[in-house]
Write a structure and sequence with these properties.
Layout (H helix, E strand, L loop, with lengths): L4 E8 L6 H9 L17 E7 L2 E7 L9 H14 L4 E7 L6 H13 L4 E7 L6 H15 L4 E4 L8 H10 L18 H14 L6 H4 L1 E9 L6 E10 L2 H8 L4 H18 L2 E10 L7 H6 L3
Parallel strand pairs: 1-3, 1-4, 4-5, 5-6, 8-9
Antiparallel strand pairs: 2-3, 7-8
Helix pairs in contact: 6-9
The chain binds guanosine-5'-triphosphate and magnesium ion.
Length: about 300
């Protein structure tokens, strides 16, 4: 009988390279929010993959970049901390972008912090380019990581090669028992999931600096009196400037209403119960650069 394997793998890479989308595809359920804006993920998120002969704990991490704010620096530190806690590091590089100094910097950091950890190259978003371009990118990633690194091309959106990736990661894991009970897909607290789904809905369609300036905090979750199938959820959306507050709220509150409707549906789907979602927007001036406010927002 084959031995059971279990362990931790983290997905790292530049912002917007498809780490969270891949995490969701492997887990088989949305546990991490995604967006076309860089720096969507702001904390490490654990997703669990259950197989007959293995259990993989995926650690989705924030994209690595040259930090411009205290928040950015904090997120980079957070990723560095995970290197020492995992069995495999999977570096994500999109098929449709040239390898650059940002990728080389990440590889250098990994080699320095975790010289003995297995490093895997994952070429993401292969549905966006031709087969020849995938082959060329695999060669480029091989040059970046060295000949001993295993490489896997995937498309999370199309589900191509996702199962192959699971098998390759599992083969690198040590023998050991499962860490999480069967069926558990994440250890994210429900409040965190709710806050993230609201942030994702609010990110939709806003531009420039606004995505970075958004933070969401769940203030209160209370069961509706004399109903056991309904929760009242009160959430605060923080932005950094009054002008951003106006954008988020929209004309006559129309945009905030849309955000509420879209987030509510997703939260109801995940919790399996009906909710009433109450959203308010507040300005927390320049919170990304302010240690005190960062702490209050959980960073
Ligand atoms: N076509 C295509 N698009 C993808 C694929 N995977 C991710 N994307 C898109 O790439 C964008 C970024 O995806 P995310 O999963 O949020 O990227 P990330 O690496 O987690 O980003 P950060 O959290 O900001 O570091 C989104 O618009 C995704 O829809 C893929 O396999 N194919
Ligand atoms: Mg992400």
């Amino acid at each position: 009988m084959p031995e059971f394997r279990s362990g931790f793998v983290c997905f790292v890479g530049r912002p917007n390279t498809g780490k969270s989308t891949l995490t969701n595809a492997l887990v088989g359920q949305k546990i991490a929010i995604t967006s076309s804006r860089p720096q969507t993920t702001r904390h490490t998120i654990r997703g669990i993959v259950h197989r007959e002969d293995a259990q993989l704990i995926l650690v989705d991490t924030p994209g690595l970049h040259r930090p411009r704010t205290l928040l950015g620096a904090r997120l980079n530190d957070l990723v560095r901390d995970t290197y020492s806690e995992v069995d495999v590091i999977a570096l994500c590089i999109p098929a449709d972008e040239k390898i650059g100094p940002g990728d080389r910097w990440i590889v250098q950091q990994i080699r320095q912090m975790a010289p003995k950890t297995t490093l895997l190259g994952v070429v993401t978003k292969i549905d966006k380019v031709s087969r020849d371009e995938v082959a060329a990118q695999l060669l480029a990633v091989s040059n970046l990581l060295g000949p001993e690194a295993e490489l896997v091309p995937v498309s999370a959106v199309r589900g191509e090669q996702v199962e192959v990736l699971v098998e390759v990661i599992a083969s690198k894991m040590p023998e050991g028992p499962a860490f999480y009970p069967d069926g558990e897909l994440t250890d994210e607290p429900e409040e965190t999931l709710m806050a993230e789904l609201i942030r994702e809905a609010a990110l939709e369609g806003v531009r420039d600096e606004l995505p970075h300036s958004l933070a969401v905090v769940i203030e209160e979750v209370v069961p509706r009196e004399d109903r056991d199938d309904m929760l009242d959820v009160h959430a605060l959306l923080y932005v950094e400037r009054p002008s951003q507050k106006a954008i988020i709220i929209g004309k006559g509150g129309s945009r905030l209403k849309q955000v509420g409707t879209s987030a509510r549906k997703q939260i109801e789907h995940i919790l399996g119960t009906r909710i009433y979602l109450d959203l308010h927007v507040k300005v927390a001036k320049d919170w990304q650069r302010d240690p005190k406010q960062l702490r209050r927002l959980g960073f």
